[in-house]
Amino acid sequence: MKTWLHSWRAAIRIARRDAWRSKGRSALVLAMIALPILGVSGLDLTYRSSELSPAERVERTIGAADARFRDAQVGGVPIYQDPTGEMHTPAKDYENEPWPSGPTDVTKTVPAGSTVLTDTIGSAKLTTAHGLLMTEVRELKASDPIARGILTLLDGRFPEKNDEVVATSHFLETSGLSVGSTLSARNFDRPYRIVGSYELPDTLSTDQVNTLPGAFLAPYAKAVEKAGLPAPDVSVSYLVRKPGGFTWNTVKEINTKGVAVVSRAVLLDPPAASEVPLNQKDGWGGYESSAGADAAELASLATVVGLAMLEICLLAGPAFAVGARRSRRQLGLVGANGGARSHIRAIVLSGGLVIGVAAAVTGTVLALILTLLLQPVLEDTMGQRFGSFDVRPVELLGIALLAVLTGLLAAVVPAVTASRQTVLASLTGRRGIRRSSRVLPLIGLAALLVGGAVALFGSMVSQQVTLVAAGSALAELGVVAMTPALVGLFGRTGRWLPLSPRLALRDAVRNRGRTAPAVAAVLAAVAGTVAVSTYMASREAQTRAEYEATLPYGVASAFVQEEGGRDVPAVRDAIQRNFPVDVRADVGRVSVGKPGCPSWGGAGCGRYEVVMPPANECPMYATVPGGGDPADKYTPAERRKMMTEDWRCKDSASSGMYVSDGGLVVGDAKLLQVLGVDDPATVKALADGRIVSFNRALVEKDGTVGIKQITDIAAADKASEQGRPAPGKVSALPAYLVPGGKKSYGVQALMTPATAKAAGLSTVPLGVYVSTDRMPDSEQRQKLDSDLAKLGSNVELHLEEGFVNDNGIILLSLAIFAGLVTIGAAGIATGLAQADAEADLKTLAAVGAPPRVRRTLSGFQCGVVAAMGVLLGSAAGLLPAVGLRLTEERDQLRYYEQSLAEGWSGELTPPDVPIVIPWETLAGLLVAVPLGAALLAALVTRSRGALARRAAT
């Protein structure tokens, strides 16, 4: 034991000294191992630090209170909730009864003797330095001790008067305001002074202002209603403090009154799953991953880690071989002085151990330092503050051990190779004859065949992506194992090459021990790049083929659904001012109730429906009295037939973007021109006061289209629950059906303002369509976005640009990554080749070879390694991409068949899942990368070596 310890101690000292002497090579290998450790350790530190403890989460949710009470909006009926209070549902099943809804008085459920703090949240358009900004408004007495922890004060103080507010730092940054500025709201001229700034630790990007309870939302609602607009919705919760807190039994008791509770005691000490009634309710049980899913996830993680370690070992292994080759005289002296082969292996392995430990320490320390320094940046990116800087020593140690293991594994093959050298060969510099293994290629061939079979089985039979990934990884490992034999096959092409590349290729084949790892490293990197590129190119081709234009090319639309279209004129002017407009078509919508009502209704507002004649309605979608699914009474064959043959069930011209309820738009003939509807009869019908319909299902047999005005929303909702038509006044308008099934881009019916007025329908502005002379450039779009942002309205803007590929930068990044790995691996192999061939190069120089031979040979050696790796990697990378695409094809075909059988509306065309080879990426890898590697190696190689006497042989 003592002898073994002393020998390893000496070996480590020798390895440390050699690593220090060869600083460049050591730094290269250290960086290759340390960078992944840095990334994984930093990810672990960031994840653990952002993972809040129960106490930290409670503080951010309810501050110093014992509970938060919230109305479940189910009319006070008993509910079941989860321990966190985030999910709840009525305790009773309401399958055949109307779903309970409505408020309840939460204050009546608060125990006597409790301290209560009201927390109210609404929204308003607040004035800013740039215009208006839709902002969340909160009324919470933030200075109260109960609220401590919910808001973090950054500057100034919390409000003390009704005309004071504090604002989040994000709101101040977005609005251009600062502490001391004043703000007000649209339709509400009362000024408020900003007296401080704060942040919400869980949502740093929230635009919010906070004021005292009753200071803003109630008077603002009165002012808005006075302006003819519906009051904004608000949500109210109550922070409650009570001696003894709220146990789970107390929470369940409060749930019987229709109130959901977030309890401090329950969050800190949650009940068992069996004690939660919600878990016993169908569809609400806790979701836990199965043992099989956990095993598959663990296997996937192990595969990724293993492949990453393999890539590093393949890259670092030749570097260790370079060191062993340049230290062979030293290793020979160890053997000449009685050292055994185990001592030689220990010295080379110690090199991997030293570099691995140094990489582990470097990566871990840098991860700690960078995570601390970048904590504000990481928090801003994640949108939340860390709970605490959480360091898990065991996890970091495990990650560091991966670095040590990687360094040792990378040095195994060079250690074994060095130990097999005879003392005489090491001292004289002779390389001897080394035969490659005949068993390893056979094992690799078997792995390739088995892996390919598993991947194909996973894609063609079992439809499991895990099998495809596992089979592809096994096949890639098989190709890596076959690399020495494949390198030998490449050598047979040397007879057709000129002198310098022929010498480089034969040198690479003759010394497969250093060539194969570098080729395998390039192979692995390129295979991953080709796999991802092929998959993404295939998905892009499929997405391009399935792309459906929302509007004609170059046409823009903008809609404002809120406040009765108050900001629509400003939106129209902004588009006219910033875009190269050719034709502009202003459009409106039908409004029921007060002029300021939004399209979705509200207090004092109604809605309208475009009546679908019962005879034109698809039998599978028709409303059934008493509820239920009308498609259930049909067999799969009948449903399939209706979906494919019955015009009422096929997708109609209504497909496209959402415009308004029923696709009904109020406009003129300019809209037809913008949408590309060139039909004089349609234009004439519109001018004659008829409603133009693009969907024949809306037209009655008498040639009219019915529009129902619904004023009693409660009665309409009740009728809908009972499967009856909603009560309301129906206006029948003479219609014209546009022939030929012209594409209308979501517009199902169009009428002029005069037609709507004659039918007794009120209208409000909705938005605008414009066609453009040319596609607006980036500057014009930015100016428009800036002008619209100043309005503070929710503007639905769309510009039809056709299909846009968003994956081009990703493919380019992958190609660059693969190119860098290829150049690095080929460069290492070239350095090893130069160390081997130094004597031959000196001999060539001695017999009169020109200096450029050294550069040329170096360049071709690097290019040969890169070319072999890229070629093999390109072939290996196709298997996983093809397997995944075949799996997706089977999934989509199965869903298509199910859609037809179940009567689901959707695309009736069978899915087309193409497999596309990214030839541009492959061309760059196959041509540009090897050529670039060769040129780079030639440029960095010295033309003349150091003068030395010829070694005695």
**Largest beta-sheet details:** 10 strands, mixed
What is the count of β-strands?
Answer: 22
Let me know the average pLDDT: 81
Please estimate the helix content: 40-55%
Question: Which regions have little confidence, pLDDT < 50, spanning 5+ residues?
Answer: 949-953
- Net shape: globular
How many helical stretches? 30
Q: Quote the distance from N terminus to C terminus.
A: 41 Å
Structural class: alpha+beta
Radius of gyration of CA atoms, rounded to a whole number = 37 Å
Beta-strand percent range:
5-15%
Structure report:
- With 953 residues, this protein is of the alpha+beta class.
- 50% of the residues lie in helices and 14% in strands.
- The protein is built from 30 helices and 22 strands.
- Helix 15 runs parallel beside helix 29.
- The protein is globular and about 105 Å long.
Jot down its keywords.
six-stranded mixed sheet; disordered C terminus; globular; 30 helices; ten-stranded mixed sheet; alpha+beta; 22 strands; 953 residues
Helix/strand layout:
Elements: H1 2-21, H2 23-50, H3 54-62, E1 67-71, E2 79-81, E3 88-90, E4 115-127, E5 132-139, E6 152-156, E7 164-168, H4 169-175, E8 182-185, E9 188-199, E10 208-211, H5 217-226, E11 235-241, H6 248-255, E12 259-263, H7 264-268, H8 277-280, H9 291-326, H10 328-336, H11 341-373, H12 375-382, H13 393-419, H14 423-428, H15 439-462, H16 465-481, H17 483-490, H18 499-510, H19 512-546, E13 555-560, H20 568-578, E14 581-591, E15 607-610, H21 636-645, E16 664-666, H22 669-674, H23 680-687, E17 691-693, E18 704-710, H24 713-721, E19 729-737, E20 749-751, H25 753-758, E21 762-772, H26 778-789, E22 795-799, H27 808-836, H28 838-846, H29 852-902, H30 919-940
Parallel strand pairs: 5-10, 7-9, 16-20, 17-19
Antiparallel strand pairs: 1-11, 1-12, 2-3, 4-5, 4-11, 6-9, 7-10, 8-9, 13-21, 13-22, 14-21, 15-18, 17-20, 18-19
Helix pairs in contact: 1-11, 2-9, 2-11, 2-13, 9-13, 9-16, 9-19, 9-27, 11-13, 15-16, 15-29, 16-19, 16-29, 17-18, 17-19, 18-29, 19-27, 19-29, 20-26, 27-28, 27-29, 27-30, 29-30
